[in-house]
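Problem statement: downstream parser choked on a complex file, so we are re-checking the raw output for the 2-acetamido-2-deoxy-beta-D-glucopyranose run. The parser issue turned out to be on our end (a line-ending mismatch), but while we're here, posting the original submission so the record is complete.
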Amino acid sequence: MAKKIFFLLFVVISLSLLHEDQAITAGTEDGSEQWGYVEVRPKAHMFWWLYKSPYRVEDPSKPWPIILWLQGGPGASGVGLGNFLEIGPLDGNLKPRNSTWLRKADLLFVDSPVGTGYSYVDDVYDRSLPVKTDVEAAIDLTTLLKEVFNGNESLQQSPLYVVAESYGGKFAVALGLSALKAIEAGELNLKLGGIALGDSWISPEDFVLSWGPLLKAVSRIDNNGLNASNRFKMHLFAVAQMIKQQLAEGQYTKAEHSFFLLEEVIGNNSNFVDFYNFMLDFDNDPIEGTTNEASRRTSTERYSKYLDSSRSLSTSDDLPTLMDGVIREKLKIIPTNVTILRCTYARFSKKKSINFHSTFLLQVDELLAKGINVTVYNGQLDLICSTPGAESWEGLKTFLSLDRSPLYCGGDDSVTQAFLKSYKNFHFYWILGAGHFVSHTIFIVHLYILVATKFFSRSYIIETIQFLKF
Ligand SMILES: *[C@@H]1O[C@H](CO)[C@@H](O)[C@H](O)[C@H]1NC(C)=O
Ligand SMILES: *[C@@H]1O[C@H](CO)[C@@H](O)[C@H](O)[C@H]1NC(C)=O
Ligand SMILES: *[C@@H]1O[C@H](CO)[C@@H](O)[C@H](O)[C@H]1NC(C)=O
Ligand SMILES: *[C@@H]1O[C@H](CO)[C@@H](O)[C@H](O)[C@H]1NC(C)=O
Ligand SMILES: *[C@@H]1O[C@H](CO)[C@@H](O)[C@H](O)[C@H]1NC(C)=O
Ligand SMILES: *[C@@H]1O[C@H](CO)[C@@H](O)[C@H](O)[C@H]1NC(C)=O
């Protein structure tokens, strides 16, 4: 109840509905928030939510940026998770978040691909409506951007930075290419500022290969475990190779099955390591530890649950309750039969609608060749999208031989927080002490990333870091 009163007083100011072609837009009366649906394809509706920053600084030489946040999963809700549990203005208890990225940018959240969160299709039995590939998901996102940006000159002044987490990295890369194409064709009016890939599932093979040796090096498995994981790894790759050869369009189902088996082997041989932070036990996870089925759940299914932890929400409440309760009431335009699921990965998996094991390295190269700034940042303790895995990406060999610089926080140069290596428009950050969820684990270092990627001015960040220091 307290939550509701807070919400009524401070959040719901008013609602205005405008009906454009196939878009529904609403927002707060003061214009600080706008949200809506775009019919990205017939019968496919994508939800977006834009927050204008109260911290905006007008500087013609450095226009205020917009960050489009792309959540992982695939199928986790950016509007729910990314917004309320990671970087938005309010946390899961609807209390102001000091570390909101609104301090640095306007924030655009989307529920993508369609079928995720508040985004929906009109006919759930029509198998042609969900996207089948990452590229199709990116085309839908491009359609959404056209609807939101074209015809709004004030939005077009801001460069758009696409920041992705986990599986969202693939969508980000695909979106970068698709948006560039639309911009070049004069169909999309926006400035693409850059792409940032946080612990991103860009090259599944490299990550999977890295698990055994990494866990062995940090004593989390022994030789027996390494051997067991190698056997399954070989199995996984044999199956994946076969499928790749047979079906150029990629039916990755068998490889995916082997992938889950490999996860199980790693779990069995490590006494259940946490795939999002190899320093932790899976059972110690605040949420996972409470359920018996924990060890049977795969890491991808655990993705959205992980963030939904007691750090952000009280134990009597959780994100789906919030999203289906006060937030749905606030937004007004969410159809009653569209429900937020805790994790929608299963939907995508069962329908084989996303090629989980496809690789996106060539597409990253393409973005770089087109002069787009690409930043990769990886948490040191992540297993699922491990740093050694990312370092194995093809084409990085020469890059990795360059020198790297240490980074510190808040003027305290007694503790190394990260390392940075840059070559032309490519930047790689090693974030020490962080697991998979870099934005969540050590926000302060995350801000540093944005500084060093020249998203924001350095002095401003230092200020914020001091303000946030804990
Ligand atoms: C957020 O900032 C306010 C004002 O400076 C401070 O009182 C509060 O303790 C901060 N909260 C957290 C969680 O850091
Ligand atoms: C919601 O209900 C409408 C009208 O009954 C129906 O057309 C639509 O398919 C339903 N949508 C979902 C996602 O169930
Ligand atoms: C353009 O977008 C901004 C930010 O959401 C909004 O405040 C403004 O009303 C929009 N302008 C038009 C003409 O829609
Ligand atoms: C990429 O970053 C550099 C600085 O590192 C900046 O000068 C350049 O404008 C950026 N490129 C784009 C397309 O934003
Ligand atoms: C692991 O496998 C290798 C051969 O692949 C073998 O030489 C070694 O003895 C095995 N180690 C253990 C601990 O089983
Ligand atoms: C993991 O351990 C469980 C329990 O011992 C066993 O049932 C299962 O078959 C093991 N999985 C693999 C892939 O080895």
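For whoever reads this later: The mean pLDDT is 76.
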